[in-house]
Amino acid sequence: MLTRFNVGLRLVTAAPAAMLAMTAPAIAQEASSDPQAAAIVDDVVVTARRRSENLQDVPIAVTAVTGEGLDARGYSSITDIQQMTPNLTFTPGTGGSSGQMSAYVRGVGEYDYIVTSDPAVAVFFDGVYQGRPFGALTSLMGIERVEVLRGPQGSLFGKNTIGGAISVVLQKPTGSNSGEADLKVGSYDHVQLRGSYDLALTDDLAMSVSALGRWGDGWQEMDSGGTKGNTDQIAGRAALRWTKGDFDAVLSVDGYRQRQNAAPNNMIAFYPGFFSELYSTFVEPCCNVPSNIDRADVTPILNIDNADASSVTLTLDFPAFGGDLKSISAARYSRVAFARDGDASLTNYSGDRQDITSRQFSQEFQLSHELFDGKVTTLGGLYLFHERSRQKTLLVTAWGLYPRLLEAQFDPEMAAGLDFNVNFDQTQETDNAALFGNATIRLNDKLSLDVGGRLTYESKEFDQTARRIFAQVPLIPGVPGYQLDESWTNFSPKASLNYEFSDEVRGYAIVSQGFRSGGFNGRPTSEAEIGSFDPEILTSYEIGLKNDLFDRRLRLNISAFYNQYEDMQVNVSYPVLGGVVVRTENAGKARIWGIEAEGRYIANDWLTFEGAVGYLDAAYEEYFSRDADGNVLDYSDLELKHTTPWTASLGAVFTGRIGQFDTTFRVDAAYMDEQYSDTQNQPLLKGEAHTLLNASLNFRADNGLSFGIEGQNLTDERVIKEGYDGSGSFGFIEAYYNPPRRIYATVRYAF
């Protein structure tokens, strides 16, 4: 393990140093030569505790990056922040949707696209929880900052979240009568147009608008023509802000449209078996593993990755009840259609298509007070959430086998049992109500105490029908459909001590608990599989130090944590004759501990270094499962999926003046250790340790015009990021890889 980390760290360190050595003389020619210039680390204002605070004053582990920082790093999506955030991993998921945001924070993040699954790491846009984070506005201009909060959240957030939260804060209209537009072109015929404008309508009323268009080919060529993973997206947002004295109201509306081919995937192994031999004998030969991960194919019915989404949010902030009252009212609609072709070919052997429609409504009230001359700060809240989601699934398994078996005089009942082409139709309604609160008590000038808690009630209703397409009989004999309902109540406490050792050094210690409600097995293939799984509970212990050193030229934040997991929810699959059982189950106990460090060093007025490192040690303490025959399986020695032991990043930013241009050169390297993509630790689905190298060079003129070039994954590293093991049932193993090297050029104008 340490050997892998040392190799990766050398790569992370050596690449920026080499590029800086080559570029430094040219850019530094007009930069200040005073190494003791009064450059300091900027303050970063965050709202992690639902009030504006300096990042260094917030006693939790949080990574924050501004919208300008996202652009400077060349990030095309919010998911790219995993390259700079310790112990954060985004996975593409196995459903074939490019718009799914599935995050793992500190090894916590099990999430499935099916409507019966809730994210363990929640995504918030302007304080609004995204129940189905498909088609989220991740690429618009107007992002003020992104905050990644690690650990359970609940005493301050509207929706309980067990692993952490990713909070996207959008810029509010200010009436500045200014705007910005850019054009980005590059590899794979990529074209992106973005624009935003902020204007004053009256002295009290301001408006902002922003828009995005993005088009391009995918990196995976299809033998039948075209590419998988192409881009075709249009999005827009408009916001109105009315301010009158202490009253602040913001109304925002956004929309998103996506029309794309399926996301790139590969069949990386195939083992002929009972089912595939039947298909090869009676329908057509199956199957061949592609020799190149950049080439594959897809059955036309499974070649889709579409999304439509819209939302409206009204945020009111005004004095009331002796304090400050904030109301967040929101509604969101999304409809997505995406698919995956498991055999990645024109052979219609295995795959599935999902059509998911979701509507959610939420209302949140927060009441905050400053009491006893500012010695006590309180926040109390009420949160209400309703979601109705419907999912239609077309499961393709040896398409056309059933009629061929009948033609061959097979017994109709036996042939029907081998028809695993299924139409699922399922609906889930979720209602969540919570009371939450937090108080910060300043015990003296140095020491403060935070106490908080959350009381959550959540209920779910689920109904499903599943019918074999060719045989026209229920998937489960005698069960044409069924309904289930469950409810859960939980109280999650939190307490922390925060101590200011000096103006530059602050420490904290936290004990907190997180809760994720239970749910239902959404893919039962037998009557015994119909049912629910239990909620999971995570108790987290954390200590940390936040430091501004050397006259605020070095910022170094360090944290260490220990998480105890009870009834961890995991997805597992087991082969059965001619099929597979897929279910969510509770794994018993697991523990996760680790360390994190983030730093920023201002070497002088033209050179800055940024870096982060994270370590995870995750293991099941008790995990006994059962296969389809009821045999007990001991999985206690397996590794938790998507828990990379080491993550590390290092960036260097070099600024100066060349002629009439302010010039910025930056290089960023991100190391990620090996990780398994599935619960059962299939060796072929182990993502190898790797380092991604990005670089950019930008020039900005005094008239608002800027232009630059950037490169992503310059060393063209290709590793598995997600996968599915169907070898025991249908014979194939499927994998998703990260994109190859890409180069872009951008021109931007601020006016």
Tell me what the structure shows.
This protein is mostly beta strands and 751 residues long. The protein contains five helices and 45 strands. The protein has a 22-stranded antiparallel barrel. The radius of gyration is 26 Å and the shape is globular. It starts with a helix and ends with a strand. 48% of the residues are buried. The model is unreliable at 1-37 (pLDDT under 50).
Features:
mainly beta, 751 residues, disordered N terminus, five-stranded mixed β-sheet, globular, 5 helices
Layout of secondary structure:
Layout: H1 2-27, E1 45-46, E2 53-54, E3 62-66, H2 67-72, E4 88-91, E5 102-105, E6 121-125, E7 128-129, E8 143-150, E9 164-170, E10 178-186, E11 190-200, E12 205-216, E13 220-222, E14 227-228, E15 231-244, E16 247-260, E17 266-270, H3 274-282, E18 295-296, E19 305-320, E20 323-341, E21 350-371, E22 376-397, H4 401-407, H5 412-417, E23 422-442, E24 447-468, E25 481-500, E26 505-516, E27 519-520, E28 532-533, E29 536-549, E30 554-566, E31 569-576, E32 579-586, E33 589-604, E34 607-622, E35 624-626, E36 632-634, E37 646-658, E38 661-672, E39 675-676, E40 686-687, E41 690-700, E42 705-712, E43 720-726, E44 732-737, E45 742-750
Parallel strand pairs: 6-9, 13-18
Antiparallel strand pairs: 1-2, 3-8, 4-5, 6-7, 8-9, 10-11, 10-45, 11-12, 12-15, 13-14, 15-16, 16-19, 17-44, 19-20, 20-21, 21-22, 22-23, 23-24, 24-25, 25-26, 26-29, 27-28, 29-30, 30-33, 31-32, 33-34, 34-37, 35-36, 37-38, 38-41, 39-40, 41-42, 42-45, 43-44
